Request: fold
Amino acid sequence: MLLDRLQSFARAQPQTTAVAQWGGLVYKVAGKMFLMLVLDGQVLEAVVFKCTPEEFDELTAHDGIVQAPYCAKRMWVKVEDLAALPEPQLTARIRRSYELVAAKLPKKTRVQLGLV
Reply:
């Protein structure tokens, strides 16, 4: 099941925590969100992750991928149609989101977490 695989993949990122928040599971590094799995009960409805402005334009050109509501404009996307990205591309985007968020952490925090 895709939900289980995405949960396992997200948890495998270094220093990741997960909380039930905003109607889904939110994955964070040092308290900063890098992924949200939007759920309806135990059914995966959508995936939200961070991207660069250039990636945003590329991703939102696909049907089924939109700007994530309530998130920074042109920096977060919501994959509403899970068929819009094949699973290997989706996991690569999640990893990229993690890297983007981790890179913005203060150097001291990155060192403490072993991310440097």
Observations:
- Residues 69 and 78 are 8 Å apart (CA to CA).
- The first helix runs from residue 2 to 11.
- The mean pLDDT is 93.
- Residues 2-113 form a domain with the Aspartate Aminotransferase, domain 1 fold (CATH 3.90.1150.30).
